[in-house]
Amino acid sequence: MQKIALTLIVLVLLISCKKEEAPKDYAELSGKITNPQDSVIKISSRSFNKNIKVNEDGTYSDTLKVSDEFYMLLHGNARTIVNIENGHDLDFNFDADDLLNTAEFSGVGSGTNNYMTAKMKLEEEYKLGNPGGFFELEKSDFEKKVSDVTVKTEALLKNAQDLDSTFIAKEIEGNNRFIEFLNTNYDAQHAILAPIATGKPSPTFNYPDTKGKLISLEDFKGKYVYVDVWATWCGPCIQEIPSLKKLHKEYEDKNLAIVSMSIDKMKDKEKWEKMVADKNLTGNQIMVDKEWESDFVRGYGITAIPRFILIGPDGNIINNNAPRPSDPALRKLFSELKI
Hints:
This protein is α+β, with helices and mostly antiparallel strands. It has helices spanning 2-17, 99-102, 110-126, 132-135, 139-159, 165-193, 235-239, 241-251, 269-278, 295-299, 328-337, and strands spanning 27-34, 40-45, 48-53, 59-64, 70-75, 78-83, 89-95, 104-108, 206-208, 214-216, 224-230, 256-262, 284-287, 307-311, 317-319.
């Protein structure tokens, strides 16, 4: 009995004297990529940028000392948002050809990331990034879609594992605000968007190019038409130019016409012409007559740019708010349409 008591005392002393390990002030990120598309993974936020080497077999591993909570992860055409915090030890495996549907997180910090992946799948399923798709619907269909989204977002949060209470509270607040936004704005937005819903005849255009030749929607009858509404003063528009030029080169022999429609002021016409020449802009470059008040712009209810629109060979609308040239979803859409 005395020996047992002595052993317990020694164990207590050892435990009490053991130096407590300090929490890691960095994160660890590793995993394996199937069908790798690049030699690096890029992790970035507004204040952070780091490239992680991807080995020939698709494996990668590195440490990151971070200050934010959420980061953009890029690998080739694959991209997603990840939650990385100091102390995390994340293992992230995915197929670069279909990141969203193959993403697998494990390890410390995986709970939030698995939840976010599931929510991004839900967002893609219901096109939550484009509320216009809700507002185009008739009232009964709109109410059903909103109800379905509400039920599924609540279930997703309820069944998630290892989420921080603050994160849960923010998610509940954000979900509620989104549903409130949809319900509050339905009537006004439906009046604007119902006329330009998928399948409806597109508003037309007939505007001059840099040489003064009028280019109209009718000129492209029988082709798909991808319209880029932009301006020389628009930073995000300029950022899309390399991707747009690449898209044009890739599809120049396909049944697709690309039309870049400037909404610059008439007094800036020479500035527009100069940019078209200096940047060697491809496709059909045209300029509207009355900026935001031009018929085509008003017809689509455009209040922010860049705005991309896809019109079918029959002149009917396919997508009044199509993916940007830099978004892999655009090529997926083209593939589905067999362009």
